[in-house]
Amino acid sequence: MRVFLPALLVLVTGLLSASAQADNFNVDKVYHPYVLPFEREFEWRLTSRQNDNGNVLMQRISYGHALSERIVLEGYIVGSRDENDDFGTEGYELEIRWMLTEQGKYWADWGALFELEKQHNTDDWEVTAGLLNEKEFGRFSLTTNVMLVYEWGETLEDEIEGEFRMKYRYRWIPEVQPAIEFYAAEGYVGVGPAFMGIRRFDGQRQLKWELGFIAGLNGDSKDHTLRMSLEYEF
To answer: Rounded to an integer, what distance in angstroms lies between the CA atom of residue 61 and that of residue 64?
Structure first.
């Protein structure tokens, strides 16, 4: 903890001191560091961002399958709406989530995230590596994601960027858990309310839902993102 918090402070300070003009960062989700043993899952996500440059609508559909008790491999198809309001394929992603520690064994729970993304119509690539953390304080939970993103390709300059995501959640009841989320990246800072819930069925079958509204604090007259997701694990 003594090493993690100063490193976290340095990263966030660097992100907040970046240019006030937001780049192509998209609010997505705050990842938890947990994996169910040998889980399988289907997931749908939607993000709709409106700012001075217009509206960006993106959807992701994925299927994931555990490679072991602690590692899950997930594949995504990413779609977006273009300037003509036509919706089509934007790219493809492969994601690995790795639960590094047993839940509740240490002062906090840790996980890792690795992503590889390829654009559909251009030879552009992106690689992400992230460290996931969650700490419980009674009925409250603090979840953080610290990520490094490297992008390159046909229309992109080689560049490394940092991202920070945070969720402070009140575990009221399993089905309804209010939270505050915070996002910071190069040229972007956003904060807003969110809700999530989980409905458990027989065995390890469960349905998760999330809904959040994030307001950008970048100086634009309008910059806000609505995000939602549904995830079925079995």
So the answer is: 10
| Vertex 117: Cα angle to 231 and 31 (nearest 5) | 40
Find the mean pLDDT for residues 202-222: 89
pLDDT, tens digit, 9 for 90 and up, residues 16-52: 444 444 456 789 999 999 999 899 999 999 999 998 8
Based on the structure, what is the number of domains in the chain? 1
Residue 73 belongs to domain spanning:
4-233
Residues 61-74, mean pLDDT to the nearest whole number: 97
Domain containing residue 101: CATH number? 2.40.160.40
Query: How far is C-alpha 178 from the chain's CA centre?
Result: 17
Q: Which residues of 135-146 are buried (b: 16+ CB within 10 A; e: fewer)?
A: eeeeeebebbbb
pLDDT for 83: 66
pLDDT, one tens digit per residue, over 137-150 is 999 999 999 999 99
